[in-house]
Amino acid sequence: MKTIHSLDVDGNSKSFATGSPMPFAITVTRLRKRTRESLPLSEIIPLWFALSSPLIGLVLGFLGAWFVTWLTS
Question: What is the CA radius of gyration of the chain?
Fold first, then answer.
């Protein structure tokens, strides 16, 4: 009778006979938990400025356009 060996989650070896419900090898790999690396403050400030500057410019542009139309009407 042939048996197929695989590893259990605990690392213990199991063998399945040909008549067992799972007659094929199962490889269990554990996923590493990805940790989020924080950025240093010297990189966060320029990143924040680069992302927020166009938005601030857009808001100021619309306010300026509204102000000019308000003055001329």
Answer: 32
Q: Which segments of 1-73 are extended strands (E)?
A: 3-7, 13-17
- 3 state SS of 69: helix
Coil/strand/helix, residue 3: strand
pTM over the 0.70 mark: no
Q: How far apart are the C-alpha atoms of 48 and 17, rounded to whole Å?
A: 60
Name 6's bridge partners. Answer: 14
- Long-range residue pairs from 56-61, CB within 8 A, at least 24 positions apart, any chain: none
Helix (H, G, I), strand (E, B) or coil at 35: coil
Which tens digit of pLDDT belongs to each residue from 2-60?
555 555 555 555 555 555 566 666 667 777 777 777 888 889 999 999 999 999 999 99
